Amino acid sequence: PDVVVAGETYWAEGLNRAVQVVRLTDGGRALVEYQGLRVELAEDALRIQEKKAPQPAKQKVAVGGVPEVDEVVTEVDLRGMRADEAQTALEIAVDRALLASMKELRVIHGFGTGALQRMVSQYCKTQPAVKSHRFGEKYEGGGGATVISLEK
Question: Domain named Smr: which ranges (predicted)?
């Protein structure tokens, strides 16, 4: 969009979902929110979201203090993101995978300069919930993907 406006809804290319802009920050960036999560993205990663008729709000109830998870994420695609954006998307995907009691998460980082692959590897080494990580098999994306094994 030519101008990003706080309070409006946009499509976030890197997150592959609709987000609402909370506020604009320095350096052409915007703090956005979706499903209770806040992430800072570059304004140029936002696309105009088509207006839809308002839908009645669905009430979700968390059971046993566990937050509601709308969809189970089995992979996250970080290609085209900057390392800071990619790390935020990775953190969200790992959190969702853990909430869904998944054993594995596939992270697509591509080949490129190797910066995203290094960030994913470093992230995995610092997370107690990550049991192990490896490059994908050929059918999983080979060296352009990392498969993370999660603790139960």
Answer: 76-151
